[in-house]
Amino acid sequence: xxxxxxxxxxxxxxxxxxxxxxxxxxxxxxxxxxxxxxxxxxxxxxxxxxxxxxxxxxxxxxxxxxxxxxxxxxxxxxxxxxxxxxxxxxxxxxxxxxxxxxxxxxxxxxxxxxxxxxxxxxxxxxxxxxxxxxxxxxxxxxxxxxxxxxxxxxxxxxxxxxxxxxxxxxxxxxxxxxxxxxxxxxxxxxxxxxxxxxxxxxxxxxxxxxxxxxxxxxxxxxxxxxxxxxxxxxxxxxxxxxxxxxxxxxxxxxxxxxxxxxxxxxxxxxxxxxxxxxxxxxxxxxxxxxxxxxxxxxxxxxxxxxxxxxxxxxxxxxxxxxxxxxxxxxxxxxxxx
Length: 337
Known about the structure:
Spore Coat Polysaccharide Biosynthesis Protein SpsA, Chain A; disordered C terminus
């Protein structure tokens, strides 16, 4: 039985960290062969206290905490990797919750040689018990919101570009290196891009399941997706073939709205296609909202789902375009989130 290290970057996760630790304690994989290494970004809430309390009451699960002074996800992952002892590394997040057989299935797929990095699908749940949070959770797994991101809904095993979290043999680090600390977001996608460049395979297995707690508010969702879009452009500069159709649509859409709006001031006829574009977009979102409200029997989704999806599209696209503009004048020095 190989030893396994679960590495977890976290910051201010007091509402979900115990759910994660409970899920790890309930794993079907033998606890003596399992360790948990949490890289905490100097949390200012009760996260550290909850971890310490859990560790004291569950001595059978080895839990180590290391400081992530820079408070970035990739630096946290690397801090955890430096102290992790396992032959197999499983990456999780502080707002995730793996199913009981998660580690066992990851190890089985790696041992079977299905991929160099293996992962599964998300079951996305609301980050709070509010109508907005429920709409955001649904939008985060909706095809209109995420396009062809298979790990959000696929039921078939496949070789893919990336997987959420992921598990890999420690020996892989000698081939592709650690996580890129200059890639403050999309660091897992960049890591997987290096795996695929080296001839390795990223494998999606839908029997590997985890819960992901989505953002609870629209401002939180907006900040998240702006960051995603911003750092995706940097990925595209380094790996042009990593941009796929669904990711190109939001910046093109935002650019078309801005472009037609500005040009329409001087050429009023251009306001017609602008109006048509807005009306069609609103209609598609409205249809999605009606369908969701009927199937989920939740009338708040009539407004909530379109709002959440539009937030995802506009902020991802705006972040991408701003990154392009900023890239003309800077060399992308790392920034705090």
